[in-house]
Amino acid sequence: MRTKADLAEGDVSAITRQGLPELLQTVRTELLGESWRDSTAVIVTSARHYVALSNAAKALLAAKRACDLQETPDIIAVDVQEALDQLGLISGETSTEDILDEIFSKFCIGK
What we know:
By secondary structure, this protein is mostly helical.
C-alpha cells in the first residue's frame, strides 16, 4: 500500500511514522493556535458544558464579591450552591427536565 507522500511537500508516512510529529504539531497549531501549548488551556467541546461552566464561574465571582462585601454566610452560600448546581449539570449530580431531554435526544434508545 502506498500513500501520496511523494506528492507532499513534507514526507509523512503512516507506515514508517516518518513526519507524524510534525504533522500533529501543524494540525494542533492550525486548529487551536498556540493555545494548545498552554497546559492550563481548557477545551470544551459541548455547548451545554460551556454554558454550565460559564454560569458556574459567574456564580463563583458573585460569591467572591459577596465575601469581599462581608455578606452573611447564607448570602454567600446561595452563589456557591448555584456554582455547584451548574457543575452538577455536567457531572450528572444535578439534572433538569430540559437537560435530560437534550441528552437523550442524541441517543437512539429502544430501536
